[in-house]
């Protein structure tokens, strides 16, 4: 499995590498922190708290950009609150391995009588080095005065991250976010600035602020200088911090060190907009070059600013800032518009700026002139740029790689020509062939009850827990709409609103209903009216058979918890205006039946040499030409067609022996229910058309054939020649292999295993019998090894499902549907009728329903939101916006009723 690094509590927005010997990975996040990871051990070594405790507004918002300067070992940070920040990490130990080495040295010192020095030496020695962290200017100058020591004030606890006055995506909020604070090792309660620290001690080891004027202290590392007396702090007991998580987050890594940037490491208001990108111009020799490297910063204000960085030999840097503004490259002078979202450089001379409109500006850093704008590669935000300078080998030229929000990756050569472009592929589930390329995860979201009502007493029963199941994967569709695609919209993959309907692949099956349910939960939660726990389990492989679904449930049963009832919404009404509740679905067995030519060579061409695929063929498992081999072998396609003819009587009856034996008998009450449904549908059709319903209206027999009786369907026949030769009237190839794809729909009380065995046995019996019949008829056949072979492969199964119509959960859903559609703005028909909503069944199958019911021993209820004309899986898939809004209302009402059960 692929290792994963866990620790951030919000989106990760930037990554940067510090190469060997550091072997660090920096990650910046919307949680306002930068984490430093060991790329070898995958441990989190340090957490940099980017916000400063001395700032008026301590939240920096999102951390968008990082850039590492290897020569000075300085990390530059671009923030949402328009500030630039930096710190020199030259004094930090490389890894936890370095810490352990120092610990071993301290143990040796104890043996030599140096106990006082070695007591707690591992952490103490670490603190000594960490206390010396400084800005690049001071690190270069080697400052060590008492003035520089004055900013080294120990931090008794990490600073409180207060809500920002302006930025809405601030790092952490103390209110209602104690869990996030704990994950960062922050105390959820923080003492005021004016009072001495009296709260609980800070967990874990702490370091002083990262300041531009810090130096090494001769004796008491970490102690403030005489000009800044240390506050009186209580002795902190040895409490370890909640550790940063290591690889796969199953075991805590060694406790990470927390560090805070000091005020001298901050350049506020560096831009007039968010700082999205940083880039450094390289220098052939940092130690000898007189030209300092440049740090470029790109912002939402559309400008790029160039800042002079100190070199290791620099000693004249400002005491308050290591960056000096050199030039501003104005966005107003470029032809491309929008924010600067990405930056990259070629050496010291060329800067690339990826813009919001898809253009890439090319700047000359010597003349500060715009050379050109690269267009034609992207038509949306350019989010990433990677520039590679050319090598010494011939043809190894400079390359620029760009990636955009349009799903494209482009490659540009040294002449700024677009040489290659890759497009992101839509992951569509088109069957078993796409399973390996579409490994989409189960998404689990848990919403705990949040009610304004008084909490229940300890003796009361636990809250109800509802599991909602949906799927976000979709069936295939054309890449573009219009023309002969069957879609009225420009693209099936772009959500389009028209005449009160939403068009797009997956809007009805099943993304629209998922969003309606999520919106219902969010509304109840935000209003403190959610009185049940809700678990949303959203699958990504339902359309390809839900492979591994049960196994995933087994592994994560503890995360999901106990479940009282399962809710799903993945079916449709019988017409355009009658609300329904689904109370049953058929099961399914999908199988492929393949007849193959034997692998032994059967013959040669008339010339005695083996022919190619378009000619004679005849080799092991090859397609052959009918003009050369026709009549000399048993053709797999003909054998398959003869076999398929024995599966049905030409009508609707399946000829597999025993197929109907276990079908539940039809009761008088069930017939009455079907008659009521047909009556309602016919009345609605008459109102719609203004006359008697025609023959196309559903009948009792047609509904029972669709819902309560099993069936067999043949979906298509493929052959081995289809992949090499396009089928046409001139095609004379005899395929070596022919495969039929079929499905059987099952109903109560049929067994999946029984029907599967019946099908396989019957097919093999009929296939063998056909060989004997042809032999006895006098037709000359090849020797026994030349007989074709039959393979039956069952690829997917799903059990049938029938709801308990009398259960309290189903009754609550009926009442919620009736209430939502009985309002004055509802066009649904006869909403106040006692027979509504209609209790219907579905002829299709959803594998997860029966699995979830049996796995959690919980009943399932099914709310159909779509109309009969939604065209799921077909062209012009759509869903009415009103149905989604009513669906949200129904779910909100149902969850409230479930809480009262």
TrEMBL record:
Organism: Jaminaea rosea
Segments of this protein annotated with the region Disordered: 103-161, 182-253, 599-630
Low complexity: bias regions: 132-154, 187-199
A biological process term (GO) from this entry: glutathione catabolic process
Comp. bias regions, Acidic residues: 121-130
Entry GO MF terms: metal ion binding; peptidase activity
Source superkingdom: Eukaryota
WD repeat copies, ranges: 5-47
Protein name per the record: Zn-dependent exopeptidase
Entry-linked PROSITE patterns: WD_REPEATS_2 (PS50082), WD_REPEATS_REGION (PS50294)
Domain Peptidase M20 dimerisation: from-to ranges: 619-766
């Amino acid at each position: 499995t692929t290792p994963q690094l866990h620790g951030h509590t919000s989106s990760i927005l930037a990554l940067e590498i510090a190469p060997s010997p550091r072997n660090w990975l920096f990650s910046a996040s919307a949680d306002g922190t930068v984490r430093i990871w060991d790329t070898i051990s995958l441990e989190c070594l340090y957490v940099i708290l980017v916000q400063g405790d001395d700032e008026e507004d301590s939240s920096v918002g999102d951390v968008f950009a990082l850039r590492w300067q290897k020569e000075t070992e300085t990390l530059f940070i671009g923030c949402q609150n328009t500030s630039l920040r930096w710190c020199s990490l030259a004094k930090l130990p490389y890894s936890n391995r370095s810490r352990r080495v120092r610990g071993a040295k301290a143990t040796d010192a104890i043996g030599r009588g140096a106990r006082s020095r070695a007591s707690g030496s591992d952490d103490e020695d670490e603190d000594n080095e960490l206390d010396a962290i400084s800005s690049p200017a001071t690190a270069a100058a080697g400052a060590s005065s008492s003035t520089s020591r004055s900013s080294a004030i120990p931090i008794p606890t990490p600073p409180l991250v207060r809500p920002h006055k302006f930025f809405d995506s601030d790092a952490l909020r103390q209110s209602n976010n104690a869990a996030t604070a704990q994950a960062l090792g922050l105390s959820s309660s923080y003492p005021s600035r004016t009072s001495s620290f009296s709260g609980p001690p800070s967990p874990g080891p702490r370091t002083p602020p990262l300041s531009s004027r810090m130096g090494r202290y001769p004796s008491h590392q970490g102690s403030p200088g005489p000009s800044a007396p240390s506050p009186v702090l209580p002795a902190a007991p040895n409490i370890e911090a909640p550790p940063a998580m290591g690889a796969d987050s199953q075991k805590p890594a060694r406790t990470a060190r927390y560090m805070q940037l000091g005020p001298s490491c901050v350049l506020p208001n560096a831009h007039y907009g968010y700082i999205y990108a940083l880039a450094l111009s390289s220098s052939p020799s940092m130690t000898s070059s007189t030209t300092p490297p440049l740090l470029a910063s790109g912002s939402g204000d559309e400008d790029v600013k160039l800042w002079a960085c100190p070199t290791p030999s620099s000693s004249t840097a400002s005491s308050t800032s290591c960056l000096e503004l050199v030039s501003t490259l104005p966005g107003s002078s470029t032809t491309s518009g929008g924010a600067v979202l990405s930056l990259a450089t070629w050496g010291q001379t060329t800067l690339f700026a990826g813009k919001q409109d898809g253009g890439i500006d090319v700047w000359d850093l010597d003349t500060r002139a715009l050379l050109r704008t690269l267009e034609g590669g992207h038509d949306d935000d350019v989010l990433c740029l990677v520039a590679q300078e050319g090598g010494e080998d011939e043809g190894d030229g400079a390359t620029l790689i760009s990636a955009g929000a349009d799903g494209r990756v482009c490659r540009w050569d040294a002449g700024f020509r677009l040489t290659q472009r890759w497009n992101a592929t839509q992951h569509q589930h088109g069957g078993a062939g796409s399973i390996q390329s579409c490994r989409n995860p189960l998404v689990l979201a848990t919403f705990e009850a949040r009610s304004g009502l008084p909490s229940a007493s300890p003796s009361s029963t636990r809250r109800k827990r509802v599991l909602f199941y949906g799927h976000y994967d979709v069936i295939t569709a054309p890449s573009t709409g219009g023309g002969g695609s069957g879609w009225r919209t420009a693209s099936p993959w772009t959500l389009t609103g028209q005449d009160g309907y939403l068009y797009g692949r997956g809007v009805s099956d099943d993304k629209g209903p998922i969003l309606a349910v999520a919106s219902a939960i969010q509304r109840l939660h935000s209003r403190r009216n959610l009185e049940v726990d809700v678990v949303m389990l959203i699958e990504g492989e339902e359309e390809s058979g839900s492979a591994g679904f049960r196994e995933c449930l087994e592994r994560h049963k503890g995360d999901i918890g106990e479940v009282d009832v399962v809710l799903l919404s993945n079916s449709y009404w019988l017409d355009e205006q009658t609300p329904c509740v689904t109370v049953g679905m058929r099961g399914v067995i999908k199988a492929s039946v393949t007849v193959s030519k034997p692998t032994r060579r059967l013959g040669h061409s008339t010339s005695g040499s083996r022919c190619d695929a378009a000619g004679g063929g005849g080799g092991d498992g090859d397609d052959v030409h009918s003009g050369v081999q026709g009549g000399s072998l048993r053709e797999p396609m003909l054998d398959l067609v003869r076999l398929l003819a024995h599966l049905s009587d030409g009508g609707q009856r399946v000829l597999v022996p025993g197929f109907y034996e276990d079908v539940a008998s039809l009761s008088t009450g069930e017939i009455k229910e079907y008659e009521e449904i047909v009556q309602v549908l016919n009345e609605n059709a008459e109102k719609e058309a203004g006359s008697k319903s025609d023959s196309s209206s559903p009948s009792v027999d047609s509904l029972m054939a669709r819902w309560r009786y099993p069936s067999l369907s043949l979906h298509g026949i493929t052959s081995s020649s289809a992949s090499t030769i396009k089928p046409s009237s001139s095609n004379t190839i005899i395929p070596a292999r022919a495969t039929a794809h079929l499905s059987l729909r099952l109903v109560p009380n049929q067994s999946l295993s029984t029907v599967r065995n019946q099908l396989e046995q019957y097919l093999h019996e009929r296939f063998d019998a056909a060989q004997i019949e042809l032999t006895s008829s006098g037709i000359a056949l090849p020797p026994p090894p030349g007989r074709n072979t039959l393979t039956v492969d069952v690829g997917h199964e799903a059990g049938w499902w029938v709801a308990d119509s009398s259960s309290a959960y189903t009754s609550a859903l009926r009442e919620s549907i009736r209430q939502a559609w009985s309002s004055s703005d509802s066009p649904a028909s006869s909403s106040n009728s006692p027979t509504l909503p209609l209790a219907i069944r579905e002829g299709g199958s959803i594998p997860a329903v029966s699995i979830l019911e049996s796995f959690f021993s919980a009943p399932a209820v099914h709310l159909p939101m779509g109309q009969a004309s939604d065209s799921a899986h077909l062209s012009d898939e759509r869903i009415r916006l009103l149905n989604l809004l009513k669906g949200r209302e129904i779910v909100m009402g149902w969850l409230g009723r479930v809480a009262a059960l």
